[in-house]
Fold this sequence. Notes:
It is built from 15 helices and 21 strands. With 518 residues, the chain is α/β, with parallel strands linked by helices. The chain folds into 2 domains: 4-258 and 492-516, Aldehyde Dehydrogenase, Chain A, domain 1, CATH 3.40.605; 262-476, Aldehyde Dehydrogenase, Chain A, domain 2 (3-Layer(aba) Sandwich). Strands 14-15-16-13-12-17-18 form a 7-stranded mixed β-sheet, with helices on both faces. The protein is globular and about 70 Å long. The structure holds NADP nicotinamide-adenine-dinucleotide phosphate. Residues 155-160, 182, 184-186, 216, 220, 232-234, 237, 240-241, 257-259, 296, 400, 402, 432, 488 line the site of NADP nicotinamide-adenine-dinucleotide phosphate.
Amino acid sequence: xxxxxxxxxxxxxxxxxxxxxxxxxxxxxxxxxxxxxxxxxxxxxxxxxxxxxxxxxxxxxxxxxxxxxxxxxxxxxxxxxxxxxxxxxxxxxxxxxxxxxxxxxxxxxxxxxxxxxxxxxxxxxxxxxxxxxxxxxxxxxxxxxxxxxxxxxxxxxxxxxxxxxxxxxxxxxxxxxxxxxxxxxxxxxxxxxxxxxxxxxxxxxxxxxxxxxxxxxxxxxxxxxxxxxxxxxxxxxxxxxxxxxxxxxxxxxxxxxxxxxxxxxxxxxxxxxxxxxxxxxxxxxxxxxxxxxxxxxxxxxxxxxxxxxxxxxxxxxxxxxxxxxxxxxxxxxxxxxxxxxxxxxxxxxxxxxxxxxxxxxxxxxxxxxxxxxxxxxxxxxxxxxxxxxxxxxxxxxxxxxxxxxxxxxxxxxxxxxxxxxxxxxxxxxxxxxxxxxxxxxxxxxxxxxxxxxxxxxxxxxxxxxxxxxxxxxxxxxxxxxxxxxxxxxxxxxxxxxxxxxxxxxxxxxxxxxxxxxx
Length: 518
Ligand code: NAP
């Protein structure tokens, strides 16, 4: 039997009492470790974090907590090699893709350490200026943000076991709010190991950081009114979380990051082979293949002026055909495995569903697997679909295939009329990100503003930033992550804005003399 990895709750390591759920290597099919949360006293563990962890963290200033984040960065950096080994084995990712998760997480944590240091020796934040309430200045209102008196429960998706932990934990811990993370079972090992390393380094007070691996049963029941829950995952599970009594009756604040049909849009007036055209092609290919397309921000729908449908299809297909797929341990391989058999089946099923309304422009099944047994390995080649009638292709606008799959669609346009393209992009019903490609700054800016109300982020790529831009799918801690509507309606990151979720806003109404002492 493989090792049963432990949970850290209530300030101590606790093994589940069950046999455990095995975690697998998606390339080789071998069992790696087991996780189990059976029999844990969740109520007691949450109470410990809420009372001891919270009190200890909230005694400290932002600067002191920022120093702890910086210390955690050092510990994680020192153990990077072990994390890469786990990612290769359990997520089936090539080194570059593991970097997005592992180093992306550590970078985000480091970014919040710096930001927290700049908040100084305070224990709460002022929100805006004093506002006069009556005729005279003497009685005023000052809004304050104080850390919430609860814990933060993170229920995370399988695709970012490292980044998904740290992008949430950094602002929570900086705010003084204890963290309990429940990673997706399939890839829980990396999250568990990172928490273990940080806990063993003794950086944070007892109860500040806990991890529960295995079943989610009972976690939501353990939440109390001042707790918050941040969920990342599928729309179906999001609906379960939203309708839980903790949220509907106890007003637990909830942030949801769900799935998203993100778009890439080439503006009119860019010829085949132009710089903007090439930038779109390159970015689409990158987004389809990084982490085998298992990124919530990946480009799923590609919109181009109708006269460029053919040339764009050819250019993307030419690049995709060079993608070497297979065992992530082989140095020639650029794209590793999907995370498990269930995802492999789901991607195949999703592809078949989309293909009822789309043609095949590049067939992923033509990629022979390198160093991997097709009967065992959860690997698929990248597939580009095309839907010439974008209005009629409702499945393409509705179905997220969580793998290396994107669909190209043409839009109609008369001189500078973007109405059709914008209508098509908005059929995603709210997305995490859209990227725009073009060389006319005014047209790009106008289109970005048009799409801002239905996207958490609009990533604009013009030739002048070809070497500088951070990538359609890369989530930077300085910028907002989340999207309206179908994307879940959540907000994460965005620099200091991320702290809002972990604070309560309150208005203090008092004499100016009182408010000035705040
Ligand atoms: P999922 O099946 O919804 O699972 C997400 C998490 O919820 C897992 O930790 C899962 O635990 C847990 N869970 C399942 N049922 C639950 C319940 N009844 N109560 C509480 N928790 C429960 O999603 P996934 O397959 O891991 O992730 C893929 C999806 O996530 C994709 O649709 C993707 O677009 C989305 N995603 C979005 C973002 C974003 O930032 N917007 C980022 C990454 C992924 P178990 O693993 O133990 O079942």
